[in-house]
Predict the structure.
Amino acid sequence: MSALKLALAVATPLIILIALVTHAASAQTPPRQVVPVVLEGVLPAQQVTGQQSVTLAARLHGPDGAPVRGETLDFYVINSVFGEHLMKVGQAPTDATGTAELLYEPTWAGEHTVVVRYGGAAYTPTQTTFRINAAGPAHVHENARFGLEPVRAVAPLGAALAILAVWGTLALAVTRTVRGIRAAAPATSSALPLVRMPEALSPAPLRPVLLAITVVMALALPIAWFQAREGSAGPPALAGAPLVPGAEQPGSDKILPAALLRFVPAITTDAAGQLTPDSADLPADVALLGDRQYVLDTNKGRILTVTPAGQLARMFESDRDGETSLLGASAITSLDGEIYVAGPRFGTVIVLSPFGKIEEVLKIELPAAEHPFRPAGIAVTDDGQIWLSDSNNHRVVSVDRKGRFLGSIGKGAAATGEYGLDTPGGIAVDALGNLWVADTGNHEVKKYSPKGVFLAAIGHRELARPEAVAVDDAGDIFVTDDERAAVLAFGRDGAFLGSFGNDATVGAQSPPRLQSPAGIEVKGTTVYVMDRLSGLFIFSVGAASAQ
Amino acid sequence: MVALQHEQQARLEQTAMRPILQPGEFFWAVVIALSIVVLMALVAYLQQLREGLAVTGLNQRVSWGFYISDMVFFIGISYGGAMTSAILRLTNAPWRAPLSRIAETMAVVAVLVGAVFPLIDMGRPERMGNLFLHGQVGSPVLWDVVAVTTYLVAGAIFLYLPLIPDIAVCRDRLGPAGGKLRTRLYELLALGWQNTPEQKRALEWGTTVVAITIIPLAVAVHSVLAFLFGVTSRPGWDSTIFAPYFVLGAMFSGVATVILAVAGLRWAYHLEEYIERKHFEYLSFIMLTLGVAYGYFMFSEYLTEGYKMHEGVGTMMELLITGDLAPFFWLFGLGGLILPILLVALPFTRNVSGITVAALAVVLGMWLKRFLIVVPVLAEPLMPSEVVIYWPSRVEIAITAGAAAAIPLLMLLFFRVFPIISVYEIEEMAEAEARKLEAPAEGEAR
């Protein structure tokens, strides 16, 4: 007993002492310097198709262009395996030119979004993003491991020789036979008696049967043709206007004047380039309620709200594994004082109050599908009908306010045409109750009536990868395009009005700028864009409606 | 020496030329009916071309369904037709004469139809060129295209060469009844054939060389087709016996298809005098032997796979033996394998009707077996996931039905132009038979 008392007597002051020293040390940590620097991604000299690895590079320099040397940059790639997340591929220091380079071996073929972050040891933290195309690493054949590569190299040659031998034999057989027969043909031939056929052996005349079959065929083919054509015609033009005026006037690069009113950073990193505890992680969508904006923090399963000071504050944090988990949720919307979030894990829609209290959890009745439900967009109509886009199953489903299935659009697999969708993203409902779907894989936005009847498709020439869509009260349509890193605006008649939010409009030297825009909302002339890699952008596009 | 009497000769020519000169209304009825099915398939394909493979039941996991099953099946039956004719020709089996034309025509027509399916399955046929522009020489896919193309050419030559004397008969004996266009075609293709001994020798040599070539070629074609499956690491396909298993299956279904074609044409064109019950019996014995061998291969395959039950094989075996696909599997086992064997083995069912029913059961059963080889293996997930069941869409069913109808349709149209049975070979066989009979008689006289 006395030994225990002695141990406590020694340990207690020691613990207190350690705690005091630690606190003092942390208190003495100098605040991060606010010295602005610019980070620019350096695209590979050529796209990396066919190469085994690629050099990722970024350059860090001051506002005056002077290179910043000796700082560490972190390189990430957005990986979509088991939900989108940033995959760290390594870090590298900047050299005398301010450039950091990292050799990266792509593990999948296709487009890669590269994110480079500077954690801000000496200067203000910043990040940049760029895209590369990769063919993926060349497959090393198993034979190479066993010294059988020479056999593998020769085997196709052997097969080719065998095939050539067969062709040669056939050619020889034909030419020799034909020549032999021709050479041996006598100059004259005697007339032979003609074949005389007996009376026809056919049974009773079949003309009525033939007639019946012909009539059936004549009827069946147009019916079959009609059936085949149903739902397959290409998107028609909107009434009274050409579908895409940009088609005649090359205007997909047209700029729409837009002023950045405010940028609310959502992604913050520490000096090591890691996300801070309060930082959002790939926030995908934004919702508006009254004067407040709600940010869906996808990879952390949270809802954040923007404070009057322009910062994000935690409003709702979901249970990670429970029925109300919002982990991986990427669709949020609002109506009549309530926030609706599509829960990705259990096929639910979670209804919250503006203050983050769960009011209702709707279990959605979904028809059978090949893949797990993955809601990428949600929209609620005034009469309580809920639309959900299920990107995994290439469809948009409609349920009532109790979650009962009403109907769906899409074929269950990636498809084109009026009712075909390919990986639909965000959706929106306009003032008339019409549904707008960002048909990501088909590079267009489709419009359906409240009953799900196809009405129009827009933006096929301008949109590269539409992620989400919003419609203002005047009927203008705003679409986020992840590949163009911009917002594209279309008039109510489908005419392309212009784009904003990318380098050209915001300016390369005046970050922030859109890097990976996802969710979008519009209120009056203000457009709210959720950028997954940076934060919430609030633009004023008064000029759009005026046009 | 005249082997066939004048009356017999005239009857033979009349029989062989009847589809050309006197097809009858029944011919047109069948052609129209088959054309409807083929046109429906074309309409379905147009729909698929417009809307993409989304109109099929294919999905991300089961990416091979009806189309690839059809390709394997149709190329397989073609192989059976060519092999039957080539082997019987090389072994100089005298009873082959009235069957060889039908078997060879079926072989060419079936491979034509089967070779279209990879294009249909691609969804984007215009990308076929990429196979040659960016083909991998180590891939069975590239070699499959090369082998099937070579086999198609060899099959066409194998059909054409023995046809030359009969084309000459058409040229010389049809007169104005043959029509201008056909007569011009006959003149072109007959190559001046006048039945001289030198011409016969040249033809015999050429036909024998092609017959010898086509046997290993047909084995190679179906082996490469089997390698498409066998060289993958997928449980169920990852098997060393897949190539001989496929070859045997192809011969089994091919001989059955020859029996069906022979039975149908015999009935439609009254060929009973030349195609007798013994021809059906001989063919059925070949089919029986192949059926037993195929059953043995299948038993060996499933026993060795099922005994070890490596990870991944279990789900596939369960799907087949007791799962969702069990009805089809047992339908094939009992209806497509055991029933035909019994129908042929039992003396009281071994007649033309019994053998035809057995052949029909084999053809349907072997198509089902191809489906069961292709689909369950893909349905089995390689990563932890649920089993995906594939079900064909109406488009796939229509295209498959159209392909099945295209084979008899093309055969009927072919026999509208060329003799349905080989007049030349029947005469040659009769001559040889007569020589055999005369030889002992001459010996006795000495």
Remarks:
- Chain B has a mean pLDDT of 86.
- Chain B touches chain A through 65 residues (CB under 8 Å).
- The CA atoms of residues 35 and 409 of chain B lie 7 Å apart.
